Amino acid sequence: MSNSSTLTIQKISRCFGGLVAVNGVSFEVQEHEIFGVIGPNGAGKTTLFNTITGLVAPTSGKVFFEGKEITNRRPHQIAKFGIARTFQNIRLFGELSALENVAIARHLCTKSGLWDGILGLPLTVKEETQTHDRAWELLDLVGLSDRAEVKAKNFSYGDQRRLEIARALALQPKLLLLDEPAAGMNPSEKGQLSDFICGLRARFDLTILLIEHHVPLVMGLCDRIAVLDFGRLIAIGQPETVRSDRAVIEAYLGDEG
Ligand SMILES: Nc1ncnc2c1ncn2[C@@H]1O[C@H](COP(=O)(O)OP(=O)(O)OP(=O)(O)O)[C@@H](O)[C@H]1O
Ligand SMILES: [Mg+2]
Hints:
257 residues; binds adenosine-5'-triphosphate; Rossmann fold
């Protein structure tokens, strides 16, 4: 494991019955990298994210974050280590407002417990104010503060994706995993996404892992890219290297690369 490695995936496999969804995948993500994970439908990208974030236990292999092993930790423990994510199938609380969706996530970071809340102790009151202010700031950052009170279910796909990013950022992560952030966005939103994600890295000092099918976005944005096919890592490297890799062209890019 190198010193500046933020995330280390070591021979991760995950089977579902007889299907090997992720097959012995290893790579390291360096601090401050924007690292892409691409590959055809069913290649195992989301399953890999799920093993990192504790939603699915790997059948074998290990995950390290900042040198500490986090394999098989529960999702909330992994979030507390500083790893947050968004989902391919958006998982917002549809009946709650945008502001509430972000504020709820923020509660995972606050120090005061249930009793402090019920008794209205000073720490809770201070933290509640901070949570509210911070949620507003994050909504502003993703361009939704003018609709903070609107229920999440009433937002467009693109807006819901940005709201999910705001909610992930409320956890104050060091590592942010984005599962297909451009899916469902209109062309203009997609066009702005690259600068937006770069801006997030700079502003919050983030390392970012990104699954995305929108090839121009991935190629233009990522420092390095890993390519999965049938659960296996078939290529890893800088965009120009991956783009011209024969196995990647055959498995995924075709003429698009
Ligand atoms: N919970 C599950 N139970 C059974 N099979 C699963 C489960 N989750 C994923 N799979 C299977 O594992 C394989 C990898 O799925 P995964 O969702 O990780 O692919 P993906 O690369 O994210 O694909 P996509 O680009 O379509 O999102 C697929 O064949 C999928 O059907
Ligand atoms: Mg997926």
